[in-house]
Amino acid sequence: MTPTPALPHSPLRSSGRTPLVLVIGGGTSGNALTVLLRRAGIAVDLVEASPDWKASLGSGITLQGNALRVLREVGVLDAIEKDGYTADGLAILTPDGTVLAAHEELRTGGDDLPAHIGMQRPRLQQLLIEQVRASGADIRLGTTATAFDQHEDRVDVAFSDGTSRRYDLVVGADGLHSATRRMIGITDEPVPTGMGIWRAPAPRPAGITRTEMVYGGPCFIAGYCPTSEDTVYTYLVEPARDRASLDPGSYADEMRRLSEGYGGVWPQLRAAFTDPKAVNYAWFDRHLVTGPWHRGRVVLVGDAAHCCPPTFAQGAAMSLEDALVLAELLAGPGDWDDRLLTAYHSRRLPRVRMVVDASVQLAQWLLDGERDADIPGLVHRTLTALQERP
């Protein structure tokens, strides 16, 4: 790989030529960015390593208001409201199911958007895929970028299928273990926090119309969030285990066992944990590239640049905001130079750092069994700050 020079002042925006961007990764941030760039009249190639391009892991996702604000710009909000489950409330329960506190959530996307919508993660991915296909982007599945040859005004990219092409900009949206990040010499890597999460879908019990969580009992957190009229997303958070020692065939048994310490609707939910293939186990990681998110004409978005434990349900929101801000800057009047990509990093880093630090702090308090921790205060301060536009 050749050295990656800083971008010089570029005449691209005034040349009249349609710029061409390569987006590597067809997940949440990559798909959203592709749609937003195409709507700005920018040509996009999207390559995705998976040959089937679908979200098979993760039963559900909580989309808070600031995520919905971006998804509205992408054009999928109406479908999300139709297929997901809108809830403005959150309740904290005791392990036996008694309600300790219930309140409305802050609307981080503004008063015209719900506080959050829960939905099935594969459905969200499908909605984004449909928008990408409709955008006219050039899509190649089962394909990865294998080398970058950077020049002052372009990047020549070689692909795993033996082809190559020249781009004005390359965006690495290829997730937590980003090959793009490593290829451009950024050495920051995700670090486990010491927590693991079990997740599974289940039928929605009658009367469950909000997110409900327990802090305590056999697990650090036991909760569920409606994801449609018929389904909920359930999760149990515990100390991280050696994943190599876990038999995937036992996943449903493990989730049933862990949930036995909880009352309320948990016996009803537990009865649905029968298929080990429907249960997902993952670690909580923290990751933040604090230095520049670009090298030359290759820049990172989403989990490739940052991720946090889902204790604030802000992972997808931060990735979507990256896509929105980068698309806004690329579609603006400025040249695609080092200053523009530095401005992108400068706008995103303080907000992302706040969310990563708060998410990790909440997880650490739970790990340490900190009884006097100001969890309500941390949550309120963080979500209040997120009401500001990115």
Word description of this protein:
The chain contains ten helices and 20 strands. By secondary structure, it is of the alpha+beta class. An eight-stranded mixed sheet has the order 6-5-14-15-16-13-17-20. Strands 8-2-1-12-19-18 form a six-stranded mixed sheet. It is globular, with a radius of gyration of 21 Å. The relative contact order is 0.18. Mean pLDDT is 93; it is low at 1-11.
SSE class:
alpha+beta
| Helical content class | 25-40%
| Average pLDDT for all residues | 93
Alpha carbon gyration radius: 21 Å
The helix tally amounts to: 10
Low-confidence stretches: 1-11
Spatially, the strands of the biggest sheet line up as 6-5-14-15-16-13-17-20
Order of helices and strands: EHEEHHEEEEHEEEEEHEEEEHHEEEEHHH
Distance between the termini: 34 Å
- Taken as a percent bin, the fraction of beta residues is 25-35%
Shape: globular
The main pleated sheet reads as:
8 strands, mixed
Counted beta strands: 20
